[in-house]
Specification:
Layout lengths: L13 H4 L4 H24 L4 H5 L25 E11 L5 E5 L5 E5 L4 H17 L7 E6 L3 E5 L6 E3 L5 H8 L7
Antiparallel strand pairs: 1-2, 1-4, 2-3, 4-5, 5-6
Length: 181
């Protein structure tokens, strides 16, 4: 009553002998390509957000200001304590010059690299360029709540909550609250 010993053979199947089967890799690549395609299509064909439309965004945005009696845009915080319209421009010396929108007088000048200032403005101006909007309409520096500060673009509805980047970066824009007054 000797029964033969059963041995388990562990030979690899052809699909795993050289590594993983190719179909999961192709499926993953197809899923990533599809996701990227959907994102790109959305970014290209996205309508102007309702908040930006309320602020007057569109082909002629920035050329005609919204009437003074217009309701604030939906993205504007309810507890606004400060609102200042500002233009930012590069000087021939490479500095970032900040001008009051009403009157155009210079209120601040940032010399040197100023990575946070330039990076923040780059985000907002890139969105304007994508939509074909010029620099005529000013950006808004909005103070709201306890020690909260936002740089907003009424032309696109884009906004950057500056306190999210830490106290040192917030301080760069916080000095503009009272600069030149």
């Amino acid at each position: 009553m000797n029964t033969p010993a059963h041995t388990l053979e562990t030979s690899a199947s052809p699909a795993t002998a050289e590594g993983a089967a190719p179909w999961p890799l192709w499926a993953g690549a197809a899923l990533m390509a599809l996701s990227l395609g959907v994102v790109v299509a959305f970014r290209i064909t996205a309508p102007v957000p309702a908040a930006a439309a309320a602020a007057g965004a569109g082909p002629s945005a920035g050329t005609t200001p919204a009437p003074a009696s217009a309701a604030p845009p939906a993205w504007m915080p309810q507890d606004v304590r400060l609102q200042r319209a500002l233009h930012f421009e590069d000087s021939p010396a490479g500095e970032v010059v900040v001008r009051e929108a009403n009157g155009g007088h210079e209120i601040a000048r940032y010399a040197g690299e100023q990575g946070f200032v330039r990076g923040t403005l780059r985000v907002l101006t890139r969105e304007r360029a994508r939509r074909g909007i010029g620099a005529q309409e000013p950006f808004l520096l909005v103070g709201h709540g306890p020690s909260r500060l936002m740089l907003a673009d009424p032309a696109t509805g884009e906004r950057i909550h500056l306190e999210s980047f830490g106290p040192s970066n917030l301080a760069v824009f916080a000095q503009l609250r009272e600069a030149g007054r």
